[in-house]
Backbone:
């Protein structure tokens, strides 16, 4: 009997579903960062607003990478519904704490997908995920470094202004 | 005269033929697909007391035979239909006394079928689709294993 399942898609149902979950997660991160950008802008933290706007664009690019991958492999990518995006945040520091938590969660999820792919012997998807795992090193590093600025500079006086100025210089270079 | 008459008539003959061909093509798209699949041997995927799912290797589709109806699905649409049937809350249907909860209506995309299902129908359809999905996945898995085996033997 002809294998119509493989003729239609090279992705198993399980992997297609978890990739669609990841699309949703990336879309959620993009919306969250856009909301953070707006909040920072409202607080007069211009550079932080710019930083988060850029992060939001990056997350959307990640989402689209997953999206096109699912479709290219014969699956059906689902445009996600995003809800529960906070519009307000406790403090400047808490915004970056939440960013780090978000990035750590994303890394964990990509690791989980890689694990499922390895078990299912889907090495094409496994190899596709390597770029994201590498990217996550940078995302976590930048968020951690910026959080450290809060300890190094301190928020008192013109501290917030200084942190806002310095955070644009934080970047990751692979050694 | 004859020649000129012939040339007057010719476009209309062509036009008529063209319209007839269009009609045949159109009707085969709308109605004839089922007939088209009937001309080829369908392979049994899964059969229960209440219905069957068969595969058409010519059109790469599945036929669901249930409650005296035949419905054509692509592999993806069949799985989507299964998910839709699986999501029906049977417990709610049984406990809710309102008339609207006696039946569930499902109109799968890309079919001209409207399924009006009682609780019994849903249980039977669930069993049928579950079995069919299992057999489709099993076939795919066996094919993969055989291909892997072939690779190992050749190397």
Residues:
């Amino acid at each position: 009997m002809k294998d119509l399942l493989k003729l239609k898609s090279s992705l198993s149902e399980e992997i297609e579903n978890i990739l669609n979950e990841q699309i949703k997660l990336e879309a959620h991160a993009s919306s969250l960062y856009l909301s953070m950008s707006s909040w920072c802008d409202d607080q007069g933290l211009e550079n932080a607003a710019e930083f988060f706007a850029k992060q939001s664009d990056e997350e959307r690019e990640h989402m689209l990478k997953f999206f096109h991958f699912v479709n290219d492999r014969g699956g059906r990518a689902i445009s996600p519904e995003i809800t529960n995006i906070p519009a307000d945040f406790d403090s400047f520091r808490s915004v970056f704490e939440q960013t780090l938590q978000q990035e750590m969660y994303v890394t964990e999820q990509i690791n989980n997908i890689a694990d499922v792919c390895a078990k299912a012997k889907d090495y094409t998807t496994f190899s596709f995920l390597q770029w994201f795992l590498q990217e996550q090193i940078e995302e976590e590093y930048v968020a951690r470094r910026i959080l450290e600025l809060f300890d190094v500079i301190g928020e008192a006086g013109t501290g917030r202004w200084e942190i806002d100025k310095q955070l644009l210089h934080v970047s990751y270079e692979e050694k | 005269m004859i020649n000129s008459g012939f040339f007057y008539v010719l476009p209309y003959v062509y036009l008529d033929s063209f319209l007839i061909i269009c009609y045949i093509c159109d009707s085969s798209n709308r109605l004839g697909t089922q007939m088209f699949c009937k001309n080829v041997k369908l392979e049994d995927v899964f059969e229960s007391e209440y219905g069957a799912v068969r595969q058409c290797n010519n059109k790469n589709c599945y036929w669901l035979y249930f409650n005296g109806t035949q419905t054509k699905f692509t592999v993806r649409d069949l799985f989507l239909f299964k998910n839709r049937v699986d999501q029906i809350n049977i417990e709610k249907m049984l406990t809710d006394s309102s008339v609207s909860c006696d039946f569930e209506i499902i109109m799968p995309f890309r079919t001209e079928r409207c399924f009006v299902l009682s609780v019994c129908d849903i249980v039977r359809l669930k069993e049928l689709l579950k079995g069919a999905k299992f057999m489709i996945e099993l076939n795919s898995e066996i094919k993969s294993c055989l291909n892997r085996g072939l690779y190992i033997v050749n190397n």
Q: What stands out?
A: The interface with chain B takes residues 1-9, 13, 76 of chain A (CB under 8 Å). The two ends of chain A are 53 Å apart (CA to CA). The mean pLDDT of chain A is 94. Chain A is about 75% helix and 0% strand.
